[in-house]
Amino acid sequence: MLLSAAPAFAQEAARSADLFEGPALESRGRDVRVQLGLLVQGDFKFTVNDGEDQDVDPFVLRRVRPFVRGQLGHHFEFFLNPDFSTTSTVVVQDLYVDTVLAPAFRLRVGKEKTPFGLERLQSALNLLFLERAMPTAIAPNRDIGIEALGDIHGGVISYLAAVMNGVEDGGSFDRHSADGKDVSGRFVVRPFITRTTHPLRGLALAIAGSAGDHARTPLRSFRTQTSLQRYFSYASGVVNDGTRIRYSPQVSYYHGRFGGFGEYVHSEAPLRRAEVRQEIAHQAWQLAGSWVLSGEAATDATAGVQPRVNFDPRARHWGALQVAARYHTLNVAEEAVTLGLVAAGASRRAAAWTLGMNWYLSGNVRCTANFERTVFDGGSPQARPAENLIAFRTQLAF
What we know:
Blueprint: E1 2-6, E2 22-26, E3 32-47, E4 59-72, E5 76-83, E6 91-102, E7 105-113, E8 142-152, E9 157-164, E10 182-189, E11 203-213, E12 222-223, E13 230-232, E14 239-240, E15 243-255, E16 258-273, E17 276-292, E18 320-332, H1 335-338, E19 349-360, E20 365-376, E21 387-397
Antiparallel strand pairs: 1-2, 2-3, 3-4, 3-21, 4-5, 5-6, 6-7, 7-8, 8-9, 9-10, 10-11, 11-15, 12-13, 14-16, 15-16, 16-17, 17-18, 18-19, 19-20, 20-21
């Protein structure tokens, strides 16, 4: 085997990927290749108006993820992505094998992200803000199953379709407690991607959906996206009691220094507590935009912003600087409260706006600062106090 520095050897169809140069092992015949990488994110967050010191403001390692990406022959690829950021256990975030038959068709088996949410499918390496927005709280996360995916006509059309065990809103596969399975899919159209000079070349329109029967499975709580403070929980004994249906229209657009995206997620399922049974909907949406002050292109989450010149203060080179803003909100149907399905003190609605700045010192080092204000239940006098949070992140990736 030869040790070399080489770019990632394959781009996942219709999927955000960690595409940056890193060390790789390659056989002399180039039919076997293994690429190594690492993502480390260190965070510090503190609430501005926490007069009663209810929130804990520690330094944390948000992600510590070494990864291995490999190619075996011309038709088989694999990806292993563990996370060591928790002290109690190591979490295998992704572990799958692809059989690649053509750009328009590959078959994936293993654990990976469910093909549904726009921002959920973006790589953690190139998130616009420290944390994903509220729609990801009701979109499925990682699951185990089988998926078909591919690009058609040079990426004009992309598709992903999967059969997986099924997870609760915002959840990842841990253990499966029901016999049902989820069917999910995402269909993307980029009508101008092949026209290199067209101003709408960076436009992408998508629709995603999922459905699955998971009777008697528990429900997750909702937390604020950046501080991760719980603000909504269902009452004890409330469970799913039938088919959960989700759908999500999505849009993204990148042109020059500007980048932006939006998504709406609707999740609805029958819930039961004792003799009470009712269809309850969760709805969330976000709109986000960014501008690169230093002049570089605002690319999507596949590649991220790449500074023209790396940080070097002696030569008066400062890397790339990007500003960003978003608004996002999540609502639980009012029937959940009136029927007594909600835990005491829960907030049915949350809305937040976020301001951010990203400083790309090089293609491997990045610093991020965010301010986020979250208001609960429309800011009524009876609502919990608004949360004002400042957060910082230093990221290393190679």
